[in-house]
Amino acid sequence: MNHGAGGELMQEFLGKHITSHFPKMKAEVPLDSMDDSAVVDDVVFTIDGHTVKPLFFPGGDIGKISVAGTVNDVSVMGATPIGLACSVIIEEGLDIDIVDKVMDSMGKTAAGCGVPIVTGDTKVVEAGAVDQMVMSTSAIGKRSQYLDSDLAKAAEYRKIDNRWCTDSNVRPGDAIIVSGYVGDHGVALLSFREGYGFDAEVQSDVAPLNGMIAEGLKVGGIVAMKDPTRGGLANTLNEWCSKSHIGMEINYSDIPLRDAVVNGCDLLGIDPLSIGNEGKAVIGVVPEMAEEVVKALRRTPEGKNAAIIGYATEGPERVILKTEIGGRRILEAPAGDPVPRIC
């Protein structure tokens, strides 16, 4: 299960057994970069599979998460998603009312974020071949109308090496922003699935972020963005360190975390920084524009709890976490997400 959980084991597995078999092709953001989307001839393209269990959970369902997650993967590249494709594999015998409920949620989420579902495919397989329903969504996007001015603003303060908001575009001094509370999705879904009761206080954060991201790009100075799904914040920050060849210093006390999430994770022995999110973005910004970007994010419903949590640094490619009591420790990338089948 850890080979598909988004952490270091998955990265190793992909490199050795998946992408190594594919032909290389020239692209501005190719498969090998392992960003949230690829860019080919200025077309941004991504695909995402969804095996969430159960299909319905506090704050969302497989339909909502399939739209939101795919829209977000395109948006964090600095692109505007313009169309979605949906492939649904349904287990024989699944109640038609469940199918209708999932598709209704999917349609409402797509309409709400302004990204239409334009094509798709549906299959029904024998009972037991899948667990109720598996969904795969893909999306295409075009360069955001705000991205050039955003990067031009960043270039007023330092050299910019990439035309897109990729994982390799962070430099020492850049501010690291999270758009809100982390860990909500994983804790809410795990609690609901296993009956722990934390879901009474915590709901999934699943939401499309294209509107919020556009507001940040309008301000300018954003150089990198990522959707911290499997592996959570810890995995995202470590990926940026590795791909951008930087270090990071992060203040734990500045990371937005709900008490219920922290308490639930303490009880279960898991790290809230390693749990997947489905409605948050991690954003790298030149430091001179960081406060203005945070203000813009906070004016949106999805970014109302945005915060600067630290800065990129020179030095070893690792994340140093400053603890609440003044200590310092290395924040390792997780081997895998500790909560399986949350997306």
How does this model look, in words?
The mean pLDDT is 93. Helix content is 31%, strand content 24%. With 343 residues, the protein is an alpha+beta fold. Strand 1 and strand 2 form a beta hairpin. The longest helix is centred in the first third of the chain and has 18 residues. It has one domain: Phosphoribosyl-aminoimidazole Synthetase, Chain A, domain 2. The strands form 3 sheets. Strands 9-11-8-12-10-13-14 form a 7-stranded mixed beta sheet. The chain has a 5-stranded mixed beta sheet with strand order 1-2-7-5-6, with helices on one face. The relative contact order is 0.18.
Keywords summarizing the entry:
343 residues, alpha+beta, Phosphoribosyl-aminoimidazole Synthetase, Chain A, domain 2, 9 helices, 31% helix
Topology of helices and strands:
Elements lengths: L7 H11 L19 E3 L2 E8 L5 E2 L2 E2 H14 L3 E13 L4 H18 L3 E9 L7 E11 L3 H9 L19 E4 L5 H11 L15 H10 L2 E5 L5 H13 L2 E5 L7 H10 L13 E4 L4 H9 L8 E7 L5 E4 L5 E4 L12
Parallel strand pairs: 5-6, 10-13
Antiparallel strand pairs: 1-2, 2-7, 3-4, 5-7, 8-11, 8-12, 9-11, 10-12, 13-14
Helix pairs in contact: 2-3, 6-9
